[in-house]
Amino acid sequence: MKNSTQTTIFVFCIGLGCATSSLGQGLSLNTQTENSVGVSLSQYKYKEPGFMTLQAKVLGIDYVGTYAFAPQWPQKQQTWFLRGEMAYKTGQANYKSNNGISISDTENWFVEVRALVGRDVQLGQSVMSPYIGLGLRHLHNDLRAENTLGYRRVTRYFTMPFGVLHKQQWSPDSVLVTHLEYLHLVQGTHWAKFSDSSPFSSDVKLKLPRGHGIRAGALWRFNSWSMGPTLTYWNIDRSDPSGQTAVEPANQTIEFGLKLNYLF
Questions:
Q1: φ and ψ at 146, to 5 degrees?
Q2: What is the CATH classification number for the domain harbouring 93?
Q3: Per-block average pLDDT, block size 10, for the chain (264 residues)?
């Protein structure tokens, strides 16, 4: 799983680079103050190697607000910007453990909010926009079902994203925006609600000490809308037991989908 996932990410990112390098000459593409509302449909897979998998088709909705500061002399080609992002995604997930237990259509959703700051840098006929920020990702999965000993699983990541946008003219009335981002896990926490399966069991709170993620995507932007593929990958290390009798195994998540935005 790990090798195949990394290969998928590598091929995806190389494809973005090839698409960008084949574009023609561009115009000024500095970041503008604007808002966008988006919808997405993606395939989501969470895996704890040797233990279980969780798969779902996920429908998402998100809002992005961008404020661009007016460029100042003498660096009129370099614009600072602030960006806020909110996203909600949900989809019934199918659970399957390595010991043969299967639970269909479990409740599965996650919410993410992020605050970013970045700067445009003019590079010939294109614009690069490096950025940094802070994010919060909250995941919820409910494995309770009739005739099972399932329980609720809640995970929360505090993250620090480092990324770059690349913008270049695609045609006289469209722009290709590609992005690549590294996500550093600052702090992670996992709650296992074992009391859901037995009144004699206690809930467990576990710290996730290490992990990282990668995001990549390409959006073809027109006057008031944009669309394109997105890829998100997470690799989280085994939790710190810290005196607990349970641990959260090392896990990977991959989400690949298609996104459509309305810009205003």
A1: -60, 135
A2: 2.40.128.100
A3: 51 45 49 96 97 97 95 69 98 93 94 97 92 98 82 96 95 93 97 88 92 98 95 96 78 98 96
Distance CA 54, CA 32 (A): 39
Residue at 26 is within a domain: no
50 Cβ contact partners less than 8 Å away, ≥ 6 residues apart: 98, 249
Could you list the residue range(s) of the whole structural domain that residue 130 is in?
47-167+179-263
Written as six digits, the tokens of 102 are: 């299967």
Q: Which residue type does 191 have?
A: W
User: Which residue, chain included where needed, has tokens 């195994």?
Assistant: 249
Structural contact between residues 121 and 136, judged by C-beta atoms closer than 8 angstroms: no
Give a yes or no: residue 3 inside a domain: no
Q: Mark 225-258 as b/e (b = at least 16 C-beta within 10 Å).
A: ebebbbbbbbbbbbbeeeeeeeebebbbbbbbbe
**Contact between residue 63 and residue 83 where contact means Cβ atoms under 8 Å apart:** no
Query: What CA–CA distance (Å, rounded) separates 231 from 226?
Result: 16
**What is the β-pairing status of strands 93-97 and 52-68?**
antiparallel
29 touches 169 (CB < 8 A): yes
